[in-house]
Each structure stands twice: as structure tokens, then as C-alpha cells.
Specification:
By secondary structure, the protein is mainly alpha-helical. It has 2 domains: 3-229, no CATH class; 242-383, no CATH class. It contains 15 helices and 4 strands. The longest helix has 25 residues, at 84-108. The protein is globular.
Length: 383
């Protein structure tokens, strides 16, 4: 049989072609510079500390607990020593592997070759994915683990082979070791397999419990391997900041749902725009109209629940309560002139305090900040 007629050979050639094409921008743009990008220096610190001391620790300002990614980056730095160049290369390798995994996943679920290649190219050229593929951020490694988890899980469901289920469990555990949000992959297995009455053997049930064990081990390990440098309660995005404001965010979860609708609509709309254009049809237009109507309803509902009232102070029962701004951050302060330190509104009926003193309206601002922080995390998982 001619090799071009064999599906496995076509998949292999497609993956090789994807990697080669994805390497063209590397040659033209030379993105592997020895410099950090945004806050990936926080994760780079863990790699450098591991190489110098042999001890794996996570900096207290790290937004994600990512020992798996730190070990992966250290592996690439072993031959030449620590550098952000090698850390960027390590992420690019995972990005290329993610594209190959997506191509295999599309084939596994029955998508045609042309449509599968179009879907893979859409991800590769998505601006956010393309830029983060040349950094040491956690986004691309996490997505790579989820894509390969999905492929292994789909194979396991089709073939009912325990080996593929074990591979899916492995990638679910790796995803948890990159971002705690990977626990959603661990939940997806039993929620999919149990209703279908697949694998009634005890060995399969034990396998599906292993990612939860891995999650517990990661958090247990993290509790004793934090490199504490300062009190980061008021540093945006730090774990201490999120823990402090989490209790306020739950009370505003109904507002988050409206805000997240718009976030996901915009983010996903930009990401799948090439697919929508390539597969334009009346059915898609009708679907877009329905989604737009739902979005318009959510937008109209927003003011009723406070989703759009993000930048001013308002009176409630003769008391001024600051809602702060849409940007997450520490609670506002009462300035010496009696105005809110965040939005500038006059706080009538309150004692003036020195600059730097926490305002009594901080619970509202904290709720807003926590709500936005939860929204960002949920939005990332949804995408």
C-alpha cells in the first residue's frame, strides 16, 4: 500500500509539517532572547535556584504552583546553564507538541484532515498562543498537557484499553503540576466514564483517583517549599492576595457570571474567527444571532446587579460605599481630604483618616477585586 494512503503516515507527515512551519517564525523573528517576559521571571527564579542549590522551591509571588514546569525548564538548562533563552526554547517545544496533539485529537474524534489542519493552524496563529509560545509562562505548557490528556482520554473511550486511560491520568496529573486548575481534567474522567458504564474493573477506578492524589501531594509539598520574601497580601495576583480576597469574591459570583459571559464571548470570538470565516453558513449566522441576543440580555441585566457599576461610589442607606475600579488591587484608602483614595469621591459622614489608613469601604472593593480575579481564572479555564 502506498504510504500516502495510510492514515498513520499521513498523521506523522502532518505533525512534521506543523513543527517545521511553526519553526519558520523562530528563524525570522529570533524570539529566544535571554530576557524575561511579563512575570515569567518568577518561575525562572525557581529553575535557577534548583540548578544552583539542588532544591526545588516556589517563590511566594508565583501565581501558579508549577513544579512540573520548573523541572522541565531545568532539564533544558542543564547543558548550558540557566538562561531565559533555554526556558523559552523549552516552552516552544511544548507548544509544537501541543499542535501535534491537537492534530491527533481532531483525527481521533473523526474530524476530516482539511478541517483538522485548519483548526490546528487557528490555534498556532492565535496571537495570545503565538506570543506565549516563546516565553516561560504557564499557559502553553498547561494547554499542552490538557490537549494530550484529551487525546488519550478519547482513545481510551474508543478502544476501552486500560493503557490509554493510564496515559490520560498521567497527563491530568502533569496538568495539575503546572496549574492547580488542572483538577478539571481529573474531574472529567469519572464524569465521562462512569455514566457510560465503561471499565467496571477496580483498576480503572483506582487509576481515575490518582490525579486527585497528585493534587493533594502537590499542595502538601508546596506548603513546605514556599520561598517567602515579604508579606504579599496587597500584591496583585499573588497567592496571599487571592486567599485574602477569596471570601469576598464568592458573594459576588452572580456578577462574575455576567462579566465572564462578555469576556469569553470576546476571547473565543477572536480565537475562532478564522474557523467561522472558513465555515461560513446560514446556520452559523443564526447561532451568532442567538448568542448576540443572549449577550445583549446579559448586558442589559448588568446594571441591575452592579456588573457595570465599577468606577464610582454610591450612597446606600445614607452611607457611602466605594466600589473601586475594575482593576483588581488592594482596598481603597481614605485620603487626608476625605475623598476615596481609589475613585476620588467625597466620603461624607466618615471621619477623615491619614493617608494610608484602610477605608471602612474596603469590603466592597475587596469583593470587586476578588470577583475580577475569580473571573480571570474561570475565563482561562473556559478558553
Amino acid at each position: 500500500m502506498c504510504c500516502r494512503n495510510r492514515p498513520s503516515d499521513r498523521l506523522f507527515l502532518d505533525c512534521i509539517s506543523l513543527v517545521l512551519l511553526f519553526a519558520v517564525p523562530v528563524v525570522l523573528l529570533r524570539p529566544f532572547q535571554n530576557t524575561p517576559f511579563v512575570d515569567d521571571w518568577v518561575y525562572g527564579w525557581s529553575v535557577e535556584h534548583l540548578l544552583l542549590t539542588g532544591e526545588l522551591r516556589i517563590l511566594d509571588n508565583a501565581s501558579s504552583v508549577n513544579p512540573v514546569q520548573v523541572l522541565w525548564g531545568a532539564l533544558f538548562c542543564l547543558p548550558t546553564g540557566f538562561s531565559f533563552t533555554m526556558l523559552r526554547v523549552s516552552t516552544w517545544v511544548l507548544s509544537a507538541a501541543c499542535l501535534c496533539g491537537l492534530r491527533l485529537l481532531m483525527s481521533e474524534i473523526g474530524v476530516g484532515r482539511a478541517q483538522a489542519l485548519l483548526a490546528t493552524a487557528t490555534l498556532a496563529l492565535y496571537p495570545v498562543y503565538f506570543v506565549l509560545s516563546h516565553t516561560f509562562m504557564t499557559d502553553v505548557p498547561f494547554l499542552c498537557a490538557l490537549v494530550w490528556f484529551s487525546y488519550a482520554a478519547a482513545r481510551a473511550l474508543r478502544t476501552e484499553r486500560l493503557g490509554w486511560l493510564a496515559v490520560a491520568v498521567l497527563f491530568a496529573a502533569l496538568a495539575i503540576g503546572i496549574r492547580p486548575a488542572g483538577i478539571v481534567a481529573a474531574l472529567a474522567l469519572p464524569l465521562t466514564i462512569v455514566p457510560l458504564n465503561r471499565w467496571r474493573r477496580w483498576s480503572a477506578l483506582v487509576l481515575m483517583l490518582l490525579p486527585f492524589v497528585a493534587a493533594g501531594l502537590v499542595f502538601w509539598w508546596y506548603s513546605s517549599h514556599i520561598e517567602r520574601r515579604a508579606d504579599l497580601t496587597w500584591i496583585d495576583g499573588s497567592p496571599a492576595w487571592r486567599r485574602w480576597q477569596f471570601k469576598y469574591g464568592l458573594a459576588s459570583i452572580h456578577v462574575s457570571a455576567v462579566n465572564m459571559w462578555w469576556f469569553c464571548t470576546a476571547a473565543l470570538g477572536l480565537a475562532v474567527a478564522p474557523l467561522a470565516i472558513a465555515r461560513f453558513s446560514r446556520t452559523h449566522v443564526r447561532g451568532a444571532v442567538v448568542v448576540s441576543m443572549i449577550g445583549a440580555g446579559a448586558f442589559a441585566l448588568g446594571p441591575l446587579i452592579g456588573a457595570h457599576d465599577l468606577g464610582a461610589c454610591r450612597i446606600r442607606r445614607r452611607r457611602i460605599r466605594c466600589l473601586g475600579t475594575s482593576r483588581p488591587g488592594p482596598p481603597p484608602l481614605v485620603r487626608s481630604d476625605g475623598r476615596c483614595g481609589r475613585c476620588g469621591a467625597v466620603l461624607h459622614g466618615r471621619r477623615r483618616r491619614d493617608i494610608g489608613a484602610p477605608s471602612q469601604c474596603r469590603s466592597d472593593a475587596a469583593a470587586l477585586a476578588a470577583r475580577d480575579a475569580i473571573s480571570a481564572d474561570v475565563g482561562s479555564m473556559a478558553v
